[in-house]
Amino acid sequence: MIYIDNRQDKISLDKDFEKIIEDVIISALNEENVDRSCEISVIFVDNIAIKEINKETRNMDKETDVLSFPMLDYPKGKVYKDVYINYNFDASFFDEADLVLGDVVLSLEKAKEQSEEFNHSFTRECCYLVVHSILHLLGYDHMEEEEKSIMREREESILEKLNITREV
């Protein structure tokens, strides 16, 4: 189950945009071999809201583009597809039958700014940020160079398979 909650009014959205985001999430989960029903919340905010959340949760008093709040803890260096078969998901990880992966908070305002800066579409930027965040929910990280390289390769691979390129 994918929940989308638009809590901003700076960027107008339509149902087609939400459908694209849902499709990107489903594709990312499929590419990462997630073969069970999951719950993910996606919250669209503006720069003021994400700055507040970033300060509150990460003690960073600045705007950012996307924040990920994974509900599952993975062993260091492991991601969902590497551990899910043997992972002991107890009842606290579920909402009814859905495995709760976590929340994505995306500043649409920041995504718009970055799409203009990087000279590609707003939709492409949002899709990239959503894939990035979904990979975080699945245990990927980019704190070390090797992790960053692996995560970037997965992001680009997923987006390429969806034909979401920088020229979109």
Automatic annotation (TrEMBL):
Gene coding for it: ybeY
Domain of life: Bacteria
Described purpose of this protein according to its UniProt entry: Single strand-specific metallo-endoribonuclease involved in late-stage 70S ribosome quality control and in maturation of the 3' terminus of the 16S rRNA.
EC identifiers of the protein: 3.1.-.-
GO CC entries: cytoplasm
Family matches, as Gene3D superfamilies: Metalloproteases ('zincins'), catalytic domain
InterPro entries: MetalPrtase_cat_dom_sf_prd (IPR023091), YbeY (IPR002036), YbeY_CS (IPR020549)
Compartments (UniProt record): Cytoplasm
Cofactors required: Zn(2+)
Binding site for Zn(2+): 132, 136, 142
Family label: Belongs to the endoribonuclease YbeY family.
Protein name from the UniProt record: Endoribonuclease YbeY
Cofactor comment: Binds 1 zinc ion.
Keyword tags: Cytoplasm, Endonuclease, Hydrolase, Metal-binding, Nuclease, Ribosome biogenesis, rRNA processing, Zinc
Broad class of the protein's primary localization: cytoplasm
UniProt cross-references to Pfam families, sorted A to Z: YbeY
GO terms classed as biological process: rRNA processing
NCBIfam families: rRNA maturation RNase YbeY
PANTHER family: ENDORIBONUCLEASE YBEY, CHLOROPLASTIC
Annotated organism of origin: Clostridium manihotivorum
One term of GO molecular function: metalloendopeptidase activity
